[in-house]
């Protein structure tokens, strides 16, 4: 049984270097969140597991809504706060399983690429239900198991096993929302656009372990994966550029 945990104190140091989205992908995801979350200027929104604010700050700029960003890592929040425009968000260090907020405080809660990190998912979903107002929406951006299987890092030994275990299947997630009391639950499987990066840049991202799954591998497993990945790219004759699709799944519920 693997007991390694993602170290966000370490990841915070280079998270933005490797995880910032290309503008077309960011814009696509934000529009989807605004649309599904019914976010308007008058909304009060909670970004749960906001990290360094990659979505939080642009969402605040795009909507002029009141946005709270909560994360359990004080280092991630510190990075978010220090950013240009960081002051337009209310930052909060806290745990998704036990919010420091009153009941019925928010019109919308969002989670971008976080649900797989939460230890007690039921508790966090119940907490989100509690802090949402009546008719409030909850938007989860995640990856379906099909999307995970298509990920380029799945060549690394054990990543498939780790991620398929960490990420809840979409029907299960829908069921969890329903069990917490959410209604009108639904999901949208989307392509947020293609991305083109140089092979050098992509390898650099991999070496920096840009996806948290890679940080959970033993060094030997990681090096083995790197060798397999490089060989595959040579066989595919991928050349100097790598083009891949950014795929996500949005799961939504209403209170
Ligand atoms: C992969 S990062 C995603 C950050 C951000 N949402 C994004 O998409 O860039 C996952 C974040 O979830 C946070 N996190 C994990 N478990 C949490 C919990 N129980 N409560 C609050 N934040 C949590 C981590 O500290 C980390 O910043």
Walkthrough of the structure:
By secondary structure, the protein is α/β, with parallel strands linked by helices. It has one domain (8-254): Vaccinia Virus protein VP39 (Rossmann fold, 3-Layer(aba) Sandwich). 41% of the residues lie in helices and 25% in strands. It has helices spanning 8-11, 15-19, 23-36, 56-63, 74-82, 121-131, 145-149, 159-166, 170-180, 199-207, 212-215, 219-235; strands at residues 44-48, 66-71, 90-93, 106-112, 132-142, 183-198, 241-254. A seven-stranded mixed sheet has the order 3-2-1-4-5-7-6. Helix 6 links the parallel strand 4 (106-112) and strand 5. The structure holds S-adenosylmethionine.
Number of helices: 12
Radius of gyration: 18 Å
What does the average pLDDT come to?
93
In percent, how helical is the residue content?
A: 40-55%
Largest sheet: 7 strands, mixed
CATH H level, superfamily name: Vaccinia Virus protein VP39
Q: What is the element string, with H for helices and E for strands?
A: HHHEHEHEEHEHHHEHHHE
CATH topology call: Rossmann fold
What global shape is seen?
Answer: globular
End-to-end CA span: 37 Å
* Low-pLDDT windows of residues: none
The hetero compounds bound to this protein are: S-adenosylmethionine
Question: What is the class in the CATH system?
Answer: Alpha Beta
Count of all domains? 1
Short note summarizing the structure:
With 255 residues, the chain is of the alpha/beta class.
Q: Can you tag this structure with a few keywords?
A:
12 helices, 255 residues, alpha/beta, binds S-adenosylmethionine, 25% strand, Rossmann fold, globular, 7-stranded mixed sheet
């Amino acid at each position: 049984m693997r007991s390694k945990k993602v170290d966000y104190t370490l990841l915070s140091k280079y998270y933005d270097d490797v995880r910032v989205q290309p503008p077309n992908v960011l814009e696509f995801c934000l529009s989807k969140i605004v649309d599904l979350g019914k976010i308007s200027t008058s909304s009060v929104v909670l970004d749960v597991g906001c990290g360094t604010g990659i979505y939080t700050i642009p969402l605040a700029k795009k909507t002029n809504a009141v946005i709270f960003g909560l994360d359990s890592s004080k280092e991630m929040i510190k990075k978010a706060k220090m950013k240009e425009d960081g002051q337009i968000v209310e930052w909060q260090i806290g745990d998704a399983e036990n919010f420091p907020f009153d009941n019925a405080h928010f019109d919308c809660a969002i989670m971008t690429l976080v649900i797989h990190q939460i230890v007690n998912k039921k508790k966090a979903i119940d907490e989100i239900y509690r802090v949402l107002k009546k008719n409030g929406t909850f938007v989860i951006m995640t990856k379906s198991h099909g999307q995970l299987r298509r990920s380029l890092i799945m060549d690394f030994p054990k990543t498939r096993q780790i991620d398929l275990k960490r990420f809840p299947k979409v029907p299960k997630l829908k069921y969890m929302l329903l069990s917490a009391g959410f209604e009108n639950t639904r999901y949208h499987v989307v392509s947020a656009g293609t991305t083109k990066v140089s092979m050098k840049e992509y390898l650099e991202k991999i070496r920096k372990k840009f996806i948290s799954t890679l940080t959970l591998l033993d060094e030997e497993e990681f090096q083995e994966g790197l060798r397999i990945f490089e060989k595959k790219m040579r066989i595919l004759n991928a050349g100097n550029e790598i083009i891949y699709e950014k795929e996500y799944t949005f799961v939504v519920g209403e209170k």
